Amino acid sequence: MAENMNDNAKYIYSFFKNKGWTSNSICGMLGNMQGESGIIADKNEAGGGGGYGLVQWTPKSVLTNWASQNGLDYKTVDTQCRRIQWELENGQQFYATSAYPMNFKQFTQSTSTPTYLAAVFINNYERPANSNQPQRGVWAEQWYSTLVTGTTPPSSGNSNVQAGQVQANKFAGCNIDTDGVRGAETKKAGIKVLQHAMNLDYNAGLAVDGVWGTASSNALGSHYVKSGETQYMVTAAEILVMLRGYNPNGVEYPGTFGSGLKTAITSFQSANGLSADGICGRDTFISLIS
Q1: Residue 37 in contact with residue 55, Cβ under 8 Å?
Q2: Mind telling me the catalytic residues?
Q3: What is the DSSP string of 43-93?
Q4: Are residues 256 and 133 in the same domain?
Q5: Cβ proximity of 136 and 38 under 8 Å
Q6: pLDDT tens readout for residues 5-61
Q7: Which of 28, 68, 81, 214 is the most exposed place for a label (fewest CB within 10 A)?
Q8: Over the stretch 73-108, which tens digit does the pLDDT of each residue have?
Q9: Contact, 117 vs 107, CB < 8 A?
Q10: Whether residue 29 is found in the same domain as residue 139
């Protein structure tokens, strides 16, 4: 059975509450997990970066070796929660910084806001190249509302769309909600993905603003990508078909146009009245972002 973000979040919340963590700290961590993996345990890092799991352990062997040594299935939410608790108890992974001088134990006992604790976790635990990701704080507050105050959980929506939202956030810095629903912000994110790819491949100099105007249209021109090609426009095609609910069987940075993407493109074209040639050209790109 496919994993569900909301079910996983509930399990994670219960697991760490039973370990004595505050609700605030758990939700701060959940906001980061949503940004890292969509709160999906069996999740490899996009682009082959080597990360894996709820918090994207890098390399993956950090988790898999530990799980093997302890007779556990590394793919499960429970095992990954156990790993995080082990890291807490053994002084691993989480390190205080000058901006956020809080150790792991202090984090788990903190009653600061979920927004603040999401920032602590990304800086002291995740430590990405770009730690300025305020959307994680928004998600942390949403999880607090869902799990602590009892409001309706966000829809898990379509799993392919949700995965595409995670990729759009990573590729183009979209900072959209990963709810699996293709709403207005997700549509705008699709345009940003395409604009960013054209800047990378064609030096288009576009503002990555999610607005499809004359400059973006002219930059796209008659460009296309097809089987066997490797470029960032392939990455864009992979993410865009995901945002439309199709599975290209992976996303790479830059992308290589493989059989999975061709199948997804052909299916999308057939469903939208386009020539089903498996080539992602101007008309297909325009339809994908519409």
Answers
A1: yes
A2: 36
A3: -BPGGG-S-BTTTTBSSTHHHHHHHHHTT--TTSHHHHHHHHHHHHHTT-S
A4: no
A5: no
A6: 889 999 999 999 999 999 999 999 999 999 898 899 998 887 667 899 999 999 999
A7: 214
A8: 999 999 999 999 999 999 999 999 999 999 999 999
A9: yes
A10: yes
